[in-house]
Design goal:
By secondary structure, the protein is mainly beta. It is built from three helices and 15 strands.
Length: 360
């Protein structure tokens, strides 16, 4: 059985090598997801181009989740502390106090409730599911990517937090393209100004997977990201521009004597979010928001030992929307939806995500 499996894999390899010289050269197609294009196929067929897509989706999830964790750690967002005595007022009561027709009484400090102890620890988890809908002639590689990240950080000062995160991912796509594995790495957040926050992370991941029904591999992936996010509030309206730079490299050790691969991805992602916070009660808030992110993938290379490489730089646009909930003064819940592939001809992505954070 094992010998037959390797024989089939060898025939698959030979057939693809004979298909053209372009497999041993670098090509530059505008759309990574165009796996059915004869110039896009290499000795592994469609498998490694889908692998590039998965790595990009993991990068996006990681830097988004870390930026959100850092914002929660610093108390930025709809749960931000309001001036004493105003946190329980309704919008109508705010108007009554500000219209000049009533007297505002300021309680003496001695009668005010003691200030809450500043939370230093931030514990959080983030789960995301992405459905990849491909339009590739002759191949049915549609499928899902599950990815979970959890972390904890400690706020060393009011401007610096350091943390560690762990991850689990599982990709289950068609045509035998599968992978799963665990990861771990550090992250940090730093408040640069009153409105701008820097976050950065590194993540090492160990995976088992397959590129087709006949090609299995073990791999190690290293990824790093840095983000700048702005938080400007105009009353209860939030404006958040962002810029992220991310990179990943995966080393695949292919079984059965087939050549090993190296997959590298780097991208620059400007983004923008707009949200508005509404108070649900004395300590609960909800913020509906919408946003967009533009991914410029300027490095997207696959190197195959002995057969050269493939280079595919491309761009994509993602639309996002969601709800941020403030659950008291030290807990947050986010529910997010995302539509991607708007600038790609052969791939659409649909994602849902949930994030829960608690400070103590």
């Amino acid at each position: 059985m094992i010998g037959s499996r390797y024989l089939i894999a060898g025939a698959f390899l030979a057939a693809n090598i004979a298909a053209g010289d372009a497999r041993a050269q670098s090509v530059n197609n505008p759309n990574l997801a165009n796996c059915g294009n004869s110039t896009r196929l290499d000795i592994f067929g469609y498998g490694d181009c889908v692998r590039n897509d998965i790595n990009r989706e993991i990068q996006i999830h990681t830097f988004d989740a870390v930026a959100r964790a850092v914002a929660n750690s610093f108390g930025i967002g709809p749960t931000g502390v309001e001036p004493a005595g105003l946190s329980t007022l309704t919008p109508a009561e705010f108007g009554q106090r500000l219209d000049g027709g009533s007297t505002v009484i300021v309680s003496p400090t001695a009668d005010a409730a003691p200030a809450a102890v500043t939370a230093r620890w931030n514990l959080w988890g983030d789960a995301k599911y992405t459905w990849n809908d491909y339009d590739i002639p002759f191949f049915d590689v549609d499928g899902g990517l599950w990815n979970g990240i959890a972390g904890i950080d400690y706020k060393i000062t009011d401007r610096l937090t350091l943390g560690i995160l762990g991850s689990y991912e599982r990709a289950d796509l068609g045509e035998g393209i599968e992978s799963s594995g665990w990861g771990v790495g550090p992250y940090l957040g730093f408040v640069l100004t009153d409105n701008i926050v820097f976050s950065a992370s590194m993540l090492g991941t160990w995976l088992d997977g397959s590129q087709s029904p006949f090609i299995d591999y073990d791999s190690e992936r290293l990824q790093a990201a840095a983000s700048l996010n702005g938080y400007w509030y105009f009353s209860m309206l939030r404006l958040t521009p962002g810029l992220s730079l991310s990179w990943s490299k995966e080393w695949l050790d292919t079984e059965g004597g087939l050549p090993d691969q190296t997959i590298e991805t780097a991208m620059l992602t400007p983004s923008l979010q707009l949200g508005n916070t509404f108070r649900l009660g004395a300590t609960a808030t909800i913020e509906p928001w919408a946003g967009a992110a533009f991914d410029y993938v300027f490095i997207n290379d696959t190197e195959i030992d002995g057969f050269g490489g493939i280079e595919d730089s491309y761009s994509d646009l993602r639309l996002q929307a969601g709800f941020n909930f403030g659950l008291g003064s030290h807990a947050q819940l986010a529910i997010i939806g995302e539509l991607g592939g708007l600038l790609q001809d052969d791939l659409d992505t649909y994602a849902v995500e949930a994030n829960l954070a608690i400070q103590f």
